Amino acid sequence: MLLPKASLLNLIGGPGFEFFVDGKNYDDGGKVQQEMKKSGPGLPEAGSWRIELMPASEAKADQFLVVMLPTLAGEKAPVSVRRVEDGKRVGAEIIGPKRTTRWWFVAGERGVTVEIIEGGSRTLHQLSG
């Protein structure tokens, strides 16, 4: 979690809170969970648990930037990640063994600029959103 800088991470779920939103569990009186039990083990589960990221304090607008690195349980991610800032731009720098990428965003604007640094060269790519 790179943004917001000060954030709270909440774990939401468990019995009676599988589909909990704004003070109500939208499980249709337990019917959704009953149907999920019929599907058998090893299949995708609806509801159950989720994480919720929120700013530590209220603001008119908030920026969220989260980088997810899928890895196998017990293994260390092959890259490191850090937040980078440059004037109005904010982004994520992902440093790997062979290349570094920087994903730049400007608040209020669509799209992202991707900077790739590899083998001594640097390229920029503008992606629209």
Quaternary structure of the protein: single chain
Q: Gyration radius, to the nearest Å?
A: 20 Å
Give me the secondary-structure category. Answer: mainly beta
Q: Approximately how much helix is present in the residues?
A: under 10%
Order of the strands making up the biggest sheet: 5-6-7-8-9
Q: Between the first and last Cα atoms, what is the distance in angstroms?
A: 21 Å
Task: Extract low-pLDDT stretches.
Answer: none
Largest sheet: 5 strands, antiparallel
- How much β-strand is present in the residues? 35-45%
Q: Please tell me the overall pLDDT.
A: 89
SSE sequence, one letter per element: EEEHEEEEEE
Q: What is the tally of beta strands?
A: 9
The number of distinct structural domains comes to 2
Number of helices: 1
The general outline is extended
